[in-house]
Automatic annotation (TrEMBL):
Residues 22-127 form the Impact N-terminal domain. Transmembrane segments: none annotated. It comes from the Bacteria. This is Impact N-terminal domain-containing protein. InterPro entries: Impact, Impact_N, Impact_N_sf, Ribosomal_Su5_D2-typ_SF. It comes from Winogradskyella haliclonae. Belongs to the IMPACT family. The lineage of its organism: Bacteria, Pseudomonadati, Bacteroidota, Flavobacteriia, Flavobacteriales. Signal peptide: none annotated.
Length: 202
């Protein structure tokens, strides 16, 4: 079985989209996020921008292998907003993403099925409007070695398409590198058997 070492996310925030139903307006937004703090900041920003709105419902998913998600109905009937938004995150198979749908109430109740449809549609429109990109799942390591082993170590990193994150090249050299998951174990094994090199996963 091939190791899955890519994931899909969005490159940048999507442009605002608008879905209307019976005078209610639903503004949809998608943001790339990496932490729960990023989520909080984006929601606070939207609450300032749309201070007169009635609801700011959202869902997010973080992580590439251990996924963490949350769906929030923000005062709408249970599971009528957050979960339909989260369902779109799942159907587009994206992660490290936050989708917020801001609702201005138009005076006419939509009922639970109407709400589910509106939040789902606004989330879908936001995702269709975003540029989805595929990234690799990378693992970081540090290696320590004597100066005399430097050219061989650097060549191994280059041959395995590892990205050097930082390097301190003195008598005693220390390099931290990042490599896509499918190649990580093989290179780890090479360095492990390389006399004079200490390697550890970060």
């Amino acid at each position: 079985m091939e190791l899955k070492d890519t994931y899909k996310t969005i490159a940048s925030p999507s442009d605002e989209v608008l879905f209307k139903d019976k005078n209610s307006k639903f503004f949809g937004y998608a943001f790339p996020v990496k932490t729960e703090n990023d989520v909080k900041l984006q929601i606070e920003k939207l609450k300032k921008e749309h201070y007169a709105a009635r609801h700011w419902c959202y869902a997010y998913q973080l992580g590439t292998e251990q996924l963490k998600y949350r769906a929030n109905d923000d005062g709408e009937p249970n599971n009528s907003a957050g979960m339909p938004i989260y369902g779109q995150i799942q159907s587009f198979d994206v992660t490290n993403i936050l989708i917020v749908v801001v609702r201005y109430f138009g005076g006419v109740k939509l009922g639970v099925s109407g709400l589910i449809n509106a939040y789902k549609t606004a989330a879908q429109m936001a995702l269709e409007n975003a540029s989805i990109t595929e990234k690799t799942i990378d693992i970081n390591y540090s290696i320590q070695f004597d100066y005399k082993n430097m050219s061989k170590a650097l060549r191994l990193l280059k041959d395995n398409e590892a990205e050097i994150l930082s390097q301190k090249l003195e008598l005693d050299c220390l390099i931290t590198y990042s490599i896509r998951k499918s190649k990580a174990e093989e290179l780890f094994a090479i360095f492990k058997n390389f006399h004079g090199v200490q390697i550890k996963k970060l």
